[in-house]
Specification:
By secondary structure, the protein is mainly alpha-helical. The protein is built from 15 helices and two strands. A two-stranded antiparallel ribbon has the order 1-2.
Length: about 400
Amino acid sequence: MTDFAIFWDWLSFAVRWLHVITGIAWIGSSFYFIALDLGLRQRPGLPVGAHGEEWQVHGGGFYHIQKYLVAPAEMPDHLTWFKWESYFSWLSGFAMLCVVYYAGADLYLIDRNVLDVSVPVGILISLACLASGWIVYDLLCRWLIGKADTGLMILLYAIVVFMAWGLTHLFTGRAAFLHLGAITATIMSANVFMVIIPNQKIVVADLIAGRKPDPKYGKIAKQRSLHNNYLTLPVLFLMLSNHYPLAFATQFNWVIASLVFIIGVLIRHYFNTMHARKGNPTWTWLAAAILFVIIMWLSTVPKVLTGEPKVSAEAQTLLASAHFPAVRDTVMGRCSMCHAAEPSYQGIYHAPKGVMLDTDQGIAAHGREIYLQAGRSHAMPPGNVTAVTDQERALITAWFEDAQVK
């Protein structure tokens, strides 16, 4: 069991690393092509069907890029598809959801003070949220394509606010933020897999068959691509939020999540406007900063963090261990000055990652993390600032490993 815990921790690290790598690739290509599209210029003498061109310099060379709004007259010999970045980002993200939140559902997914459900039911609710988010979004886009783009965006934002509120009534605050980001990322990846790439394949098939492609497919794909562009920054915030309890574990966490979407839109509006050479809307940064200050204020009203899970079966075993009294003394003396409702360590004002180790239940609930970060490794405390001894680390290791045998 102890070897399995170490393996699982490394697996979590590997999947997270893969997710970051693929996410960088996807976001990078997405931002690049939106900037390229907005920066295209028209001039006399462009090839028939070309919408615009752009000259760029990078890596010691010049690039001459032309965009065909519908398609070129004939199929080019070589065509590069930008899709795998999206697919692997979603697959690695879902793998991380399984490894961290489904495998550790009692700690990270389910808060029985919010919704008292079993682990299988909690996982089914999670999967239903991912699927329903895409279904509702896709139906609305198909219904309103080309009819009321502004109205569509307002309606979609209202749904985002409702989801942010609703998820906090289903899961822990940490999981609610993660799921709001995962639902949004699922929409983005499904846009690529279900709409953008299939539409481009239809255009390619028409070219190969000698038919004139229908411009509607490009229009639909561009709409979804633009949505992805505006959703990227909020998704990044939500995925990083699990490290910051002031974001996910306060009473107004759903309001914070909702405001983050507006901040993301404001920042993307600035860059998109600049890339399109339509001005320099610096007001967007001021508006984003004001909203961020409001978020900071909301995170401290009230100051009591919520979402402490009930004691799991593993935690109960750890509490009953003969080693627990000695481990409790070690943790209270070496860790609780930071990991407490009111930290006493200078410069620490809120328990890192919301981990509270100032009660017996809190120590037992986080036994696995204590074992991995302070027993089997020296990750905690940082720099060993509280001088945890080798004997104390050995005690923590024995405490957890003996409980696993039982």
